[in-house]
Description:
Blueprint: H1 16-27, H2 29-38, H3 59-82, H4 86-96, E1 98-99, E2 106-107, H5 117-134
Antiparallel strand pairs: 1-2
Helix pairs in contact: 1-5, 2-3, 3-5, 4-5
Amino acid sequence: MRDYQRHLNNKYILPTDVYKQTLEIIRGYYRMEEDLKTILEEMASLGDGMPHGPSVSDPVASKASRRENMKRRIDIIDAALLEIPEEYRGAVWRHIGWYNVQTGKLERHPWPPYADVSTYARWKSKLIYLVAERLELF
Length: 138
């Protein structure tokens, strides 16, 4: 399966780079959830003892910023997913795919035979469009 953006009868068309970037953000959902859990447990790296200039390092602020950014992305994906009708939500999510946290490989599934492919594709386009719009990628 390839990452194809429908152009025929699609009111949710995005620039190609924004479309692919949004797909990768959505696919990183489970990795971001794992990072949210582990980010607070990270230890600050120890310096090498050499001076490195006037920059001020604030590891707590850095972690808080990273965590806030990931949490925002997860919340945006969750909210956009709730705008997809429940009967199509799972199929759209499985078709977009996600990166398996343990293996790092992309897991995707074909469309189920319960509805027409164009129906699923329309909802997939809307989901990707909503996420890109709320992340202000275009």
